[in-house]
Design a protein that fits this description.
By secondary structure, the chain is mostly helical. The protein has helices spanning about 20-30, 35-40, 45-55, 60-65, 70-80, 85-90; strands at about 10, 15-20. The two termini are about 20 Å apart.
């Protein structure tokens, strides 16, 4: 993993989620970028960039770890970056 991890937060449904990048979300929401097209041309992008993109669009941590292009190492790094005892006690992690 070369790119930095996005911060994680607890959303309104008590789901751990990566903090989305507002510019990236805007591009997706306005149709400037198309997730289906990006999936079709995923061979053009490194695994590292695909992992970071999933974070930048605000994936949940559990969904992120299930993506085929996310390595076990990156998943574990993301999980270990959450160091909030309340979350562990609530069995969210």
């Amino acid at each position: 993993m070369k790119n930095p991890l996005q911060p994680l937060f607890l959303d309104g449904q008590e789901t751990l989620r990566f903090k989305a990048n507002n510019i990236v979300r805007y591009l997706l929401d306005k149709g400037v970028a198309d997730l289906n097209h990006l999936a079709e041309v995923s061979y053009l992008f490194s695994q590292d960039d695909q992992e970071q993109f999933a974070q930048l669009i605000g994936y949940s941590l559990s969904g992120f770890c299930e993506l085929s292009y996310v390595s076990d190492e990156t998943c574990e790094k993301a999980k270990s970056s959450v160091d909030v005892p309340r979350l562990r006690k609530a069995k969210i992690l």
